[in-house]
Design goal:
transcription regulation; Tscrpt_reg_LuxR_C; 2 domains; 7 helices; DNA binding; HTH_bacterioopsin
Amino acid sequence: MTRSFIAEMTISHADLPLTPTIRTVDGVEIAVESEPLTYPDQSGSILFYSVTNCDFRAFDSALETDHTVDEWEVTMDFQDHRVYQIYHTQEAKFTTPEIADLGLQVLSSWTVGRGWELRLHAPDRERLGDYWKFCREENIRFELEKLYSTGPQANAASGGHAEVSLTERQREVARTATRMGYYEPEGASAAEVADELDISPSTLSTHLRRIMAKVFRQLFDD
């Protein structure tokens, strides 16, 4: 059996689909029920979402001011559950094209906190690393939750339990970024973390890339 990998991660950015609504409607739970669809007469993508655990009047109101939403309609309406068909604007930022280009597969996607949780399947470890790099380049906050390998020598690990060999400086950078909430949706910016460490934002970016590269090598070590 060929070895492959599954990663669970949280991503967040103000322009990801429905982010303004997620951050406005407390406790709402949204799951993606379709791949993004496009039609010749629509400039943006169309998706179906399952929505629960909210005041639907508040949810509908939030959609009206959500800059990632162009049009919307309720296609199924139950007492505590609705399915929405949402037409997104061109301003909505999707990572699914990059996911497809990298040969990754979305197993599930749902809201968590103020962002989106993704469960991805990858045929090899490098492609997950490439997706992380893409998110960093697009200023999308990326937090790795769990990593699994399938096939021979299968294992599961979480980011918090991996033994990774970091230099003292890298540990200081990682601790400071975590303490200041750099990986949280409303946490410190790269400039703020860099200022705290008395380094430039570009140097901080270099440190973080090297730290994450070590994490991926350790967790995906053959």
